[in-house]
Amino acid sequence: MHTNESSSVQEYLQSQIRTIPDWPHKGILFRDITTLFENPEAWRKTVDVMVQRYEKQAFDRIGALDARGFLLGSTLAYILNKPLILFRKKGKLPGKTISVEYDLEYGKAILEMHEDTILPGEKVLLMDDLIATGGTLLAADQLIQKAGASTLEAAAIINLPDLKGADRLNAAGIPTYALCNFEGE
Predict the structure, then answer these.
(1) pLDDT at residue 185 in the model
(2) From residue 34, how far is each of 105, 129, 143 by CA, in Å?
(3) Residues 6+ apart with CB under 8 A from 81
(4) How many folded domains does the chain comprise?
(5) CA distances to 1, 45, 131, 153, 155 from 9, in Å
(6) Could you report the per-residue pLDDT of 14-57, keeping only the tens digit for each?
(7) HSE of 63 in the Cβ direction (CA atoms, 13 Å)?
(8) CATH number of 126's domain
(9) pLDDT in tens, 130-155
(10) Domain of 29?
């Protein structure tokens, strides 16, 4: 897991993310990134660090995960002049899609993308708001592989190392990057 470009930027961004205890369930510490969007300086620093990391890397598309991943993914796609792929929950995309079923903490879900959105051999940068268990990012990687392409890296604003998602992604051969690590669930 790669993290932070500089500890001062990481510390600043981490200080701007609100923690809400016992939401959505008792015992959960919810890391609320909406505070980054409400603070232009914090959002600019978030985007700038990601742009600096990826502007010189070779990849073809940015894949953004439903729903908060859309915010960072679309911003980077615009700045880096890359096509944007949307990975959505079942039934949310019009037209022909390909899908994969994946495990949730309590059950299963289906992730979809348009079937013609990635060309074989392309490299895709995945973007989400946070890496928790890694399940949704692993499902997105499976869809990318179904299309004959590969994942450059799975990037997020937050990594929750106690939930081992980055470890699962790394074990599957997917490099990970996060701006901030938050201990605890």
Answers:
(1) 58
(2) 24, 10, 28
(3) none
(4) 1
(5) 17, 8, 19, 21, 17
(6) 999 999 999 998 988 999 999 999 999 999 999 999 999 999 99
(7) 31
(8) 3.40.50.2020
(9) 999 999 999 999 999 999 999 999 99
(10) 2-181
Q: Tokens standing for 117?
A: 């959105």
Please state, as a whole number, how many other Cβ atoms lie within 10 Å of the Cβ of residue 36: 25
* 83-111 pLDDT, tens digit each: 999 999 999 999 999 999 998 877 899 99
Give me 54's structure tokens: 């990826």
Query: Can you give the pLDDT at residue 99?
Result: 98
Q: Is 137 exposed, middle or buried (0-12, 13-18, 19+ CB in 10 A)?
A: buried
Q: Are 90 and 99 in contact (CB under 8 A)?
A: yes
Burial (0-12, 13-18, 19+ Cβ within 10 Å), 23: exposed
